[in-house]
Amino acid sequence: SQQGEEDPQALSIQEGENATMNCSYKTSINNLQWYRQNSGRGLVHLILIRSNEREKHSGRLRVTLDTSKKSSSLLITASRAADTASYFCARDAGNMLTFGGGTRLMVKP
Amino acid sequence: DAGITQSPRHKVTETGTPVTLRCHQTENHRYMYWYRQDPGHGLRLIHYSYGVKDTDKGEVSDGYSVSRSKTEDFLLTLESATSSQTSVYFCAISAPGIRGSYEQYFGPGTRLTVT
Questions:
Q1: Residue-by-residue pLDDT tens, chain B, 115 positions
Q2: In this predicted model, what pLDDT tens digit does every residue of A11-66 receive, in sequence order?
Q3: Do A96 and B43 lie within an 8 Å CB cutoff?
Q4: What long-range pairs does B35-41 form, CB within 8 A, spacing at least 24?
Q5: Chain B residues close to A4, C-beta within 8 Å
Q6: CA of B9, closest CA in chain A: separation in Å?
Q7: Which residues of chain A have a CB within 8 Å of the CB of B103?
Q8: Spatial separation of the C-alpha atoms in residues B74 and B24, rounded to whole Å
């Protein structure tokens, strides 16, 4: 079973639009992390948000965390074709991460 | 890839044969992990290690064993491969990121097909 569940499972947008992906989880967290995976490659860490934080920014990425709702969202602004990838949230449970099923994002040029 | 290599990168094997996948890191990180990735399931943790000869089970450990005799190498063994173990296997290490929280860095993956 997965502790993190992403929504939607797939998302298709035009270049320049914003992309929003959501993640829900079931138990308490130390932090929540977002990763990106290009087709056929390993995952790459994007951003981490601690349980006592509500929002973080990194370049065109904005992550929010609502611990009362046990949910997080990843916003990619002004998307580019190169943003096409799968995006995963992962709940940090100490020394282990529990990943969700991912959102497949396609950005059309 | 944070100095993480996996070998082999691709393997086709027959049901019932033993298979060993190798993960090698160059930066002496303490924690290492093996995941499998299947469509519809994301990444699932098989086993992890928190030091030489120190390992523990993850979510989907049945049918797998691991060994870590050196800091830099973490081996995943399928004692008798089954078709349900056809998957892409990723190794990862855990390293401190900004402000001390740990982030994981992944190897390139091994695509295993069991026929």
A1: 568 999 999 999 999 999 999 999 998 899 999 999 998 778 999 999 999 999 999 999 999 999 999 999 999 999 999 999 999 999 999 877 665 678 899 999 999 999 9
A2: 999 999 999 999 999 888 889 999 999 998 999 999 999 999 999 999 999 999 99
A3: no
A4: B35/A99, B35/B89, B35/B90, B35/B91, B35/B92, B36/B60, B36/B85, B36/B87, B36/B88, B36/B89, B36/B90, B37/B87, B37/B88, B37/B89, B37/B90, B37/B109, B38/B87, B38/B88, B40/A101, B41/A2, B41/A101
A5: 42
A6: 11
A7: 33, 45, 48
A8: 7
- C-beta of residue B21 within 8 angstroms of C-beta of residue B76: yes
